[in-house]
Fold these 4 entries.
Entry 1:
Amino acid sequence: MGELASRLNAEAPHVTRQAQRLERAGYVDRVPDPDDGRAS
């Protein structure tokens, strides 16, 4: 999320909320990062 926020020039919490909305609507899937189990 941090990299996406940086690329969008937005704050990370805003990007996280939008990603959650997109996930609930079925537009995106969040999967675990293979290199960092804490990230998705």
Entry 2:
Amino acid sequence: MYASDGVINKSLGGIGLEEWKHAWLGESSTALGSILFVNFPWVGGISFLLFMAGLTAIPRELYEVGILEGAGPWQRLRRLELPMLRGPLRLVLLMAVIHQVQSFENVLVLTNGGPGFSTLSPALYLYKKSFEYNEFGYASAIGVILFAALLGFTLLLQRTMRTADAPE
């Protein structure tokens, strides 16, 4: 997909955007975005199931009231569905951040942290320190710091979402 003769570059050439072709994983400016797109958290897996469960839990009567009040599709999304999906959104956001911080396999396989250090993630740095350089103590310290940072982020997200959910 990201190769010089891959799907993206061929598609860009096919629609006349030759100047947009890149070495997607070989340039510092596009490598990180390309890897993040591989792990795009809103599209598949458990995130999709959480959103589907949240949408099916919205009572049909609320949709009918929205239609009777003259709400269009965008107004229903903004004023009905998004507020009702606050819980699943919070969970998906939390899981996506934790996954992105802990994930290193795609970065390891696609770029090994390069070009330069532009795609070096904390988890890949931990992996390299422990298994390539045999600095297990240093890698353990990185792991503890990552745990503390993710715990702090989780608590902060819970606190801000709880105050946003509180009635006025």
Entry 3:
Amino acid sequence: MKKLIILTLAVLLAIPSTAQIYKRYEPSRYHREGSEHYFGLRLGLNLSSISSENVDIDADYLAGLYLGGVYGIQLAYRAPVWLELGLGYSEKGGIARPEGYKMKYRLSYLEAPITVKYSFDVSDFRIQPFLGGYLAVGIMGKIKDYRLHDASKSTFDSFRRFDGGLRLGCGAEYRMLYLEVGFDFGLANISKDDFDTARNRCFFFNAGVNF
């Protein structure tokens, strides 16, 4: 799975070098005439879960925070195609209920998404479907076991810190304002147990500004 993630991201990263021979497609970007790139800030909500055949790990949706920034660059002149790189703080995890008791898994990551966007105009808006991937490293987290009177321990005693997968979704922009909805499909096995598999799943809703 790691090889597939790395290969996918390598292909996306190679696109700018092949696109250097092209010229800009559109004469302007947002309010900056002649701009071929942009910066952005993002604040949003994650609705994440953990998918596993182990009932102690398989977890339903848990709300979390996303906060980050992005950098985008236009790739080609014959189509409004953009490469967007990001870096942010992302809270994932889930709530499991094995044998009727509650366990909450909170996994906080430093996350680096990379996506390719296609932009087209709809009235005064630009609609931007996107596809790409993400890599992430765990920086903190806790497991709360409500069976043991809210006893907690580090999430990464049970889960690996590395995560990565595919990302898809759609954004919409109006002037400098930007909204997006998407889904992260984790491919990396984050379980430390060699006999178990666990993968992150996450719907995200982000708002922000581009400049």
Entry 4:
Amino acid sequence: MATVDPISDLLTRIRNAHKAKHRRVDVPASKMKTAIARVLLDQKYIANYTVLEDQKQGILRINLKYHDGRPVIMGLRRISKPGIRIYRGAEAMPRVQGGLGMAVVSTSRGIMTGAQAKKQNVGGEVLAYVW
């Protein structure tokens, strides 16, 4: 079944898996979801991820990360939604939790954190906040 907002579905599955103390979560794969998982891995919010092939679109398997029994990801929040897109320029990139979190931004140079976008002086669509 097709979802209206696949990024929100990804974030909700990660959030629910953390609440249930699962070690991994499987999500239908896409290039954007894989890029978001790469950013989460680069920023050390997840342990790792793999893309498994099946007869359809593939499965993105995300291994979640815990520290002393508590999830590393304390919160996930979708910002730009299909009904209302939120764009920011490089100079107006948001700071999440006073700099302790990160914004996931879709730019013309790919998906990256808000800090990376500001450093490269590119703006884009603010997809989500992670802290």
